[in-house]
């Protein structure tokens, strides 16, 4: 099978625009307090969100999500040493909401499609290559990255710009609010007092290439794409299957060796965190008490279709540092979530690979592994 490597990174989140902003926030281990949703018409009972910086329109995007995606894509391509526009780069972009807000606020009968994020990136690229939108809710970024790796491994592409992006949606935020799935304080995965998640805006983009193509053009390699697994339990429209069987299946498919760190899906909802914790213990076995988790959503909120892509960017940063940053401090860890969440400082990365999990409504599960290229 063709080796797939990561040569470029791009990110935008509530901590700022750019991978460096995310890296600084991870090192500081200080969460930004949630913002108030600037949309009184939504009628939210808990109007919280993690808002990304405002980004000026580029002329190539359909709205706010497109601007976030293009900004992260531009950084990733520049990091990879690829010029833009670049008409041979395949794009695979995951999203939950797409460009929902403009459609939600337009007059009835407007047929403007909502899922324009991937096409916004391709338009900015000036590309004629394949362009795919992956829209299976909060696992979309993970599926997009795995699909990108599959395209390269199958010889259908040399370079793929892949990731995820999401911005505020009135319907998306209102649905979580009506389900009672929003924490009134902050996103605090695995905390005994957690009461839900807090949604956020963001975009994460990675440039994936065949190792042969990267070598031929002299590209610097950040990491290697080392494994992936998909599964679907289809047990409930919104809740994870309590058995965790299919979550375990995705992780086992992705892992070929022990991970040095896990970036869990870890939304902060009561059932999700418990199910994932049990599944992790089943998969990691005797190593479960020693493999550190890095709870990214406690730092930037739940960025929907961007969450796994931003987690993959964070995984590459962890591999580069050789250490797992301290987690945002918990008030009290839930005893039913028996996972290792170091909070007192960086923890050495014992094995040079990071497992990234992403789960979604409908029981869609994605796990992927990135490992050191050294």
Automatic annotation (TrEMBL):
SUPFAM superfamilies linked: Thiolase-like
Keywords (A to Z) from UniProt: Transferase
Residue ranges annotated for the Ketosynthase family 3 (KS3) domain, each copy included: 1-372
The keyword Transferase is assigned to this record: yes
PROSITE patterns on file: KS3_2 (PS52004)
Pfam families: ketoacyl-synt, Ketoacyl-synt_C
Domain of life: Bacteria
InterPro entries: Beta-ketoacyl_synthase, Ketoacyl_synth_C, Ketoacyl_synth_N, PKS_Beta-ketoAc_synthase_dom, Thiolase-like
Extent of the signal sequence: none
Protein known as: Beta-ketoacyl-[acyl-carrier-protein] synthase family protein
Originating organism: Amycolatopsis albidoflavus
């Amino acid at each position: 099978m063709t080796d797939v490597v990561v040569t470029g990174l791009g990110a935008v989140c509530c901590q700022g625009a750019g991978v460096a902003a995310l890296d600084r926030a991870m090192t500081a281990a200080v969460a930004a307090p949630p913002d108030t949703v600037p949309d009184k018409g939504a009628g939210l009972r808990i109007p919280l969100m993690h808002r990304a910086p405002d980004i000026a329109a580029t002329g190539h995007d359909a709205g706010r999500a497109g601007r976030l995606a293009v900004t992260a894509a531009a950084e990733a391509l520049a990091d990879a040493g690829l010029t833009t526009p670049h008409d041979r780069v395949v794009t695979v972009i995951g999203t939950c909401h797409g460009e929902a807000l403009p459609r939600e606020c337009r007059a009835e009968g407007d047929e403007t499609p909502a899922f324009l994020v991937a096409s916004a990136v391709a338009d900015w690229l000036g590309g004629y290559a394949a362009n795919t939108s992956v829209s299976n809710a909060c696992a979309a970024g993970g599926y997009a990255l795995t699909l990108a790796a599959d395209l390269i491994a199958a010889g259908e592409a040399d370079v793929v710009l892949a990731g995820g992006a999401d911005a505020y949606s009135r319907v998306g935020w209102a649905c979580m609010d009506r389900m009672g799935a929003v924490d009134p304080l902050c996103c605090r995965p695995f905390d005994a007092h957690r009461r839900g998640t807090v949604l956020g805006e963001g975009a994460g983009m990675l440039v994936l290439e065949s190792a042969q193509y990267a070598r031929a053009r002299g590209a610097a390699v950040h990491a290697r794409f080392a494994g992936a697994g998909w599964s679907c339990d289809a047990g409930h429209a919104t809740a994870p299957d309590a058995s965790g069987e299919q979550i375990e299946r995705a992780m086992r498919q992705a892992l070929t060796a022990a991970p040095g760190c896990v970036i869990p899906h870890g939304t902060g909802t009561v059932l999700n965190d418990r199910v994932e914790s049990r599944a992790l213990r089943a998969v990691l076995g005797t190593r479960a008490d020693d493999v550190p988790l890095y709870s990214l959503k406690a730092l930037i909120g739940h960025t929907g279709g961007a969450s796994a892509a931003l987690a993959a960017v964070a995984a590459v940063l962890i591999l580069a540092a050789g250490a797992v940053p301290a987690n945002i401090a918990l008030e009290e860890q839930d005893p039913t979530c028996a996972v290792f969440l170091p909070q007192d400082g960086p923890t050495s990365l014992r094995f040079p690979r990071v497992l990234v999990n992403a789960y979604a409504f409908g029981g869609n599960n994605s796990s992927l592994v990135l490992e050191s290229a050294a």
